[in-house]
Request: fold
Amino acid sequence: MKSINLKKKLASQWFRSLRNQICDEFEKLEKKISNSKIKFSKTKWKKSKSKSEGGGEICILRNGKIFEKVGVNISEVSGTFDKNFKKKIPGTEKSSKFWASGISLVAHFQNPNIPSLHFNTRFIATSKHWFGGGMDVTPCIPDKKQKKYFHNELKNTCDLHNKKYYKIHKLNCDQYFFLPHRNEARGDGGIFYDYLNTNNWEKDFLYTKDVGLVFLKIAKNIIQKKMSQKWTEKEKIKQLEKRARYVEFNLLFDRGTKFGLATGGNIDAIFMSLPPLASW
Amino acid sequence: MKSINLKKKLASQWFRSLRNQICDEFEKLEKKISNSKIKFSKTKWKKSKSKSEGGGEICILRNGKIFEKVGVNISEVSGTFDKNFKKKIPGTEKSSKFWASGISLVAHFQNPNIPSLHFNTRFIATSKHWFGGGMDVTPCIPDKKQKKYFHNELKNTCDLHNKKYYKIHKLNCDQYFFLPHRNEARGDGGIFYDYLNTNNWEKDFLYTKDVGLVFLKIAKNIIQKKMSQKWTEKEKIKQLEKRARYVEFNLLFDRGTKFGLATGGNIDAIFMSLPPLASW
Reply:
């Protein structure tokens, strides 16, 4: 059995390697459509406070022909949880120490036919350890065929690992990405899981890797299918209004945003997800 | 001494009459610059739930030559406070009943030289009653002369009523309109007051009226001075980024937004303040 330190190292390495792969593929898509050499710009940040340390890298590509704004963050931080916060976290009975590493991505597109994409996975260790993550898509123009394709891909990937995963992880996603003040779902849903530890680390890691890889497959597929579709000014306005709801969700309800702000996280990393342009 | 019912009636009438005056004057400004007959559109809403009733009117003008979006709400609602909420409200020891009426306004301009403007005043009654309100301005291009003019006008108005008001009400405003996650003030400040009851209702009402009238005076003055100034694309981008911080404040911290959403308020009225376009 692997030591916890080796597990941390392998998880971190994977998130970085996935980040590189995604950024490469997205830059290739930009090159394909416009022959431009538009690249992600990378910003590193470090955190060294009394209660936590570590850092991360923010990769952002703006004003592409396909991507209006896409951000991919990786981070590795450690520290001790606040008294109030630790009550909610498994494995903190004897020590409030934690370690966390992950990747998160949000993409907003020029073409309103392409849904906004959100994906993240993470590995967290206290005296216990677990994986979490998932993805969801937010179209502004409904597309039943795309929704079916998206959920089929997710189900196929989940089923490879556990026949119960898709149903449970889809339900988590539906419950979480919901705007109560508007009584509406954020988008077409997806899958989300947390506290995943089946006592088989290799297996859980493999699932988390597959979730990352199927995200990349789905993203490329949806983008390539739609990037050349025409759109109207009216559809672009609809997209900006839909993005306003994205902002509402992220600022009013998202646990990650709240946690980040409450613990003095990196503002640029936390707000990486916010759209390049939104309209109320 | 006036009965509480008469006080409520007079306050409500004032908010409505001020709303009419402001909308008239703003429409006149639009006509002056472009000879267009662009008008506010009015939406009425009603609320009739177990715990509260009443309603209001949302007046919005969009896509003017001067105003990119300006919303002016008036409302009159009554009901009973939730157990948790009433603890924070004076005069609710024996009964959780409340009555509230007010006017609120947020204006976002085409020209990035004109600051975003925010103003509101209200009269609230439980077994006690009080006035509250104020205004603040948020420039995206700093203008020391304008800031000085703005605060001078406020001080002069405050001083007519009580020599201590300006200092206290300015401090309230500075403390409230602050973005802790960015460690920055929202804008140039202004004045805000709450729970104002000096045992002289006429006097407090007069102050609240004067705050409304000086807002209109200041708004007209700033707009007329700047509406013909040229601006660059770069300044417009800066404005959209500054507006993003306006959204962050209103969704992450504003008490009015939180209260409105938690009590099932009218979404369009609550989000009237959000900008027509913002950029992250």
User: Anything to note?
Assistant: Chain A has a mean pLDDT of 94. Chain A has one domain: 4-273. The radius of gyration of chain A is 19 Å.
